[in-house]
Amino acid sequence: MKLNKEWTSFLDTKINSNEFLVLSKHIEDLYNKKIIFPQYENIFRAFNLLTPDKVKVVIIGQDPYHGLNQANGLAFSVCDACKIPPSLHNIFKELVEDIGCKYPKNGNLSRWSEQGVLLINAILTVEKSKANSHKDIGWENFTDSVIEKLSSTYSNCIFVLWGGQAHKKSFLIDETKHLIVKSPHPSPLSAYRGFFGSRPFSKINEYLDLHNIKKIDWSLD
């Protein structure tokens, strides 16, 4: 598990805490004993594709996909050759409806990251075939501190909270400085309760444009 130097400096107090050192050792042990996703070197990939000062948008998922060759270290994203999962399919349906782009050819969201979209899960690892298996081992404390530090340090970021678990992160964000975009989760169980039609992508770009920040090119084709 390795963070780039910019994030290491930004999160210095947290990653040098005894709590995080214990978590790191526990994660390393789990990877040595079981099949864990994403690949060990991709645990912090969402962070390492950009630096803290380049973050424009934070999209918060729950935990990585737990199927073989799915998780690639970015929330909601999958490897190029992987079948697009149901929640991501619904995200893409809303994307097409919202901004009028073509439906993406694959589920790799790296292009969003490279433009300043931090795609993080609240929990950064998962055991194969066991969704939410790494709940309450320490990741939530770490990712909460990331959200809180971004909120307190910068201004005019957009925090995208999809679903009940993500909504609980609202208290970490200073709404006088940032925009929260909130809706039901894009999963097939809840997408029709208000995710479809919520137009998150155009809302984000309208806010960025209002604050003279370069908009995100959401198209992936």
What do these coordinates show?
Helix 8 (164-167) links the parallel strand 5 and strand 6. This protein has helices at 5-10, 12-15, 18-33, 45-48, 86-99, 110-114, 139-153, 164-167, 200-210, and strands at 36-37, 57-61, 117-121, 126-127, 158-162, 179-183. The chain has nine helices and six strands. The strands form two sheets. Strands 3-2-5-6 form a four-stranded parallel beta sheet. It is globular, with a radius of gyration of 17 Å. It is α/β, with parallel strands linked by helices and 221 residues long. The two termini are 31 Å apart. The longest helix has 16 residues, at 18-33. 36% of the residues lie in helices and 11% in strands. The mean pLDDT is 96.
The gist of it:
The protein is built from nine helices and six strands; from the N terminus they run H-H-H-E-H-E-H-H-E-E-H-E-H-E-H.
Strand content: 5-15%
Distance between the termini: 31 Å
- Number of beta strands: 6
Oligomer: single chain
SS content category: alpha/beta
Write the layout of secondary structure elements.
Layout: H1 5-10, H2 12-15, H3 18-33, E1 36-37, H4 45-48, E2 57-61, H5 86-99, H6 110-114, E3 117-121, E4 126-127, H7 139-153, E5 158-162, H8 164-167, E6 179-183, H9 200-210
Parallel strand pairs: 2-3, 2-5, 5-6
Antiparallel strand pairs: 1-4
Name the descriptors.
single chain, 221 residues, alpha/beta, two-stranded antiparallel ribbon, 9 helices, 6 strands, globular
